[in-house]
């Protein structure tokens, strides 16, 4: 029984000790970020993400010797560094929650920016019905666009019900995805229709 209690107390001390080191790294990372923020007018986006990584790595380097052998993370270990970053970020919530919230806002706006569709306004030059329906447009500058109908969207019926004809003016929104072109035997980007509006 005494052995079990001794082992439990040792295990608790090891876990508690590594948590203390993480708290120190989190505190130093927050202090480092505050110092960088005070020197910069526009401390958001990629600059913020880079600063978090640099501050965290700098602090971890200073305290690496305080981690037990199996808890040390090598800089080349991507999974280990990700786990360390997550653990430190949780501790940063206690020290500088505003900075973590700012990172969360930046991540959300990055995702929203990536999700926004691009649009083109032009004249329909052709509609091809092959394996997939392809709408070909030419904009006012003479640039041609080939847009595939792959997914359902609210105004897709304009194409599927043959309500769009050659020479019609349209505004077409699209996203780009990378697909494998069997004929060319390579991956290439395709424009996928997401919305149609008659002009």
How would you characterize this protein structure?
The protein is an alpha+beta fold and 199 residues long. Helices cover 49% and strands 26% of the residues. It is built from five helices and five strands. The protein has a five-stranded mixed beta barrel. Strand 4 and strand 5 form a beta hairpin. The termini are far apart. Mean pLDDT is 81; it is low at 1-17.
Produce a short descriptive summary.
49% of the residues lie in helices and 26% in strands.
How do the strands and helices of this protein lay out in sequence?
Elements: H1 2-39, H2 45-63, H3 78-95, H4 97-115, E1 118-129, E2 133-139, E3 144-149, H5 157-160, E4 169-181, E5 186-198
Parallel strand pairs: 3-5
Antiparallel strand pairs: 1-2, 1-4, 2-3, 4-5
Helix pairs in contact: 1-2, 1-3, 3-4
Spell out the key features of this protein.
disordered N terminus, elongated, 199 residues, 5 helices, alpha+beta, 5 strands, five-stranded mixed beta barrel
Instruction: State the order of secondary-structure elements, H for helix, E for strand.
Output: HHHHEEEHEE
In terms of per-residue confidence, which ranges show pLDDT below 50 for 5 or more consecutive residues? 1-17
Distance between the termini: 82 Å
- Using the alpha-carbon principal axes, give the shape: elongated
DSSP summary: helix tally: 5
Helix percent reads: 40-55%
Strand order of the largest sheet: 1-2-3-5-4
Total DSSP E strands: 5
- Which band does the percent of strand residues land in? 25-35%
